[in-house]
Design a protein that fits this description.
There is one protein chain. 32% of the residues lie in helices and 23% in strands. It has 487 residues and is an alpha/beta fold. Among the domains are: 167 residues, Rossmann fold; 114 residues, Transcription Regulator spoIIAA; 57 residues, OB fold (Dihydrolipoamide Acetyltransferase, E2P). Helix 8 packs parallel to helix 9 and helix 12 packs parallel to helix 14. The longest helix has 24 residues. The structure holds 5'-deoxyadenosine and iron/sulfur cluster (SF4). 5'-deoxyadenosine binds next to strand 17.
């Protein structure tokens, strides 16, 4: 059947929803990576194919989308060529991330030529940022759906099946998808993400997320506990609590007035079972409290790992970034971690070449990386994003060549520190949660220790993914530890 393309139907006719102008785009504390998809097939049913880009939150959202689509008879497939619906869950955090998505769309063009009935939908932060421009600029796009509008997918898909091009990019102050039980995609059956909050109110000047993901809102703790308990009962042994800024999680019970903050939530999840590990990401240095650190210390199953993005080591640059802390504040948080959690590993995000950054200020970033002894960092050069505070206020005046050179210096230093950090583990014995076969050999298992370091070690009979085992580290690279099961 040939589907006719009609004028877009706009649900989004309010340009200042939520009191903030919807302009740009997304993030979260991880590098760009790509997911390409799981299988399960209902004969005769419709199939969708989904690719996710960007942060862990996007991957988690794709699992919510899969659950919503399951209700209307769509099952996931790995095979885009045979699917009825191709979805691309997009990221706008940096220009490069957007370029990657645009390139990927080109690959779907040939599929659509061969099977004109195939629908193509753009989800996530680029949907929110570019809105109806998608329908104007990309002929193959049938659906544009922002991060808070996934419940509307069945309706939008229904209309798209009738040949209409549909868009819903409304942001919400309430949506947390708390009642939706995510369908786990590409799961190893051992580790899972649980989204505990959405949006961000921080307004870091470089960041597009507050515009693409809207205002901060926290999910009710009981639905989080139910999801974590259900995962544990189904064999999962590790949950990562996700949010743009987990430390500002807050929930008030409307009936009892009970207040739950992030430290309380961590404790509640840790109490589900000592065999369920708890991780979280991402923390903001301005509101990571000692109470969180103390609760981490009290429970062995709360992993001793904190992703605490510093972004820059210079107080003037931090001020321009609107991070609302300065270097001494950040150092104080690291000192608190060292004191309360002496075994903890800390990782970071770093931006090289932010507006007006001088050579000396860049040196401050190098020195804080050294001082904080980060186990690893996600490192980027500054990429101006339309609509952000920095784009409006400051000139993007560090030349690209300088940004790249500074980034290289940062990467070189961090790689050396990661190697040193890992080498310091040689001879130590860690409890490791086995996640599966190592990527290089089916004779080896891989799993992480509490500090989030991946350890590869030879298999032993009787052990399987999901088991905990003690592993002694024998060797290390900057990325991985190599070990043997402790006898
Ligand atoms: N340019 C470069 N890096 C950015 N990040 C966020 N916005 C930008 C930008 N405009 C980085 C920050 C953040 C991480 C998820 O992405 O370091 O912590
Ligand atoms: Fe972006 Fe800052 Fe919010 Fe993180 S805390 S999502 S960097 S605005």
């Amino acid at each position: 059947m040939r589907r006719k393309l009609t004028t877009p139907i706009m649900y989004d006719n309010n340009p200042t929803l939520d009191g903030i102008k919807q302009i740009d785009e997304s993030r979260q504390g991880t590098a760009l990576y790509k997911e390409q998809w799981a299988d399960s097939f209902a004969p005769g049913g419709k199939q969708f194919y989904i690719e996710s880009y960007g942060c862990q939150m996007n991957f988690s959202d794709s699992e919510i989308v899969a659950s919503i689509l399951a209700e209307v008879g769509y099952t996931p497939t790995r095979n885009a060529e045979q699917s009825d619906l191709i979805l691309i869950n997009t990221c706008s955090i940096r220009e490069k991330a957007e370029e990657t998505v645009r390139k990927r769309l080109r690959a779907f063009e040939s599929i659509k030529q061969e099977r004109p009935g195939t629908m193509v939908g753009v989800l996530g932060c680029m949907a929110e940022r570019l809105k109806k421009k998608w329908l104007e600029e990309e002929k193959l796009v049938d659906l544009v759906v922002g991060p808070d509008a996934y419940r509307d997918l069945p309706k939008l898909i229904g209309a798209a099946e009738d040949g209409q091009r549909m868009i819903n990019v409304l942001l919400s102050r309430e949506e947390t998808y708390s009642d939706i039980n995510p369908v786990r995609l590409e799961s190893n059956g051992i580790t899972a993400f649980i989204s505990i909050m959405r949006g961000c109110d921080n307004m870091c000047s470089f960041c597009v997320v507050p515009f693409t993901r809207g205002r901060e809102r926290s999910r009710d703790p009981f639905s989080i506990l139910a999801e974590a308990t259900n995962l544990f009962e189904n064999g999962y042994r590790e949950v990562t609590l996700l949010g743009q800024n987990v430390d500002s999680y807050k929930w008030d019970n409307p009936e009892t007035g009970q207040h739950v903050d992030f430290a309380d939530l961590l404790e509640m999840v840790a109490q589900i079972n000592p065999l369920l590990r708890v991780r979280f990401s991402t923390s903001h240095p301005k509101d990571m409290t000692d109470k969180v650190l103390q609760n981490m210390a009290r429970y062995d199953n709360i992993c001793k790992y904190i992703h605490l993005p510093v972004q820059s080591g210079n107080s003037r640059v931090l001020e321009l970034m609107n991070r609302t802390y300065d270097r001494p504040w950040y150092e104080n948080r690291i000192e608190a971690i060292r004191q309360i959690l002496p075994d903890a590993a800390v990782s970071s995000d770093i931006i090289a070449g932010f507006c007006s950054e001088t050579e000396e200020e860049h040196q401050d970033t190098l020195s804080i990386i050294e001082w904080a002894n980060f186990s690893m960092s996600y490192m980027f050069y500054y990429s101006e994003r339309p609509g952000t505070l920095a784009a409006k206020r400051y000139a993007d005046d560090v030349p690209l060549e300088v940004k790249k050179r500074r980034l290289n210096e940062i990467i070189r230093l961090q790689t050396a520190i990661s190697l040193r950090h890992n080498q310091a583990d040689i001879g130590k014995t860690f409890e490791v949660l086995i996640e599966g076969d190592s990527r290089k050999s089916d004779q080896d298992f891989c799993g992480r220790n509490s500090q989030n370091k991946m350890i590869v070690f030879p298999k032993k009979e009787g052990l399987k993914p999901g088991d905990y085992t003690m592993v002694t580290v024998k060797d290390a690279t900057s990325a991985t530890l190599l070990g043997d099961i402790a006898s």
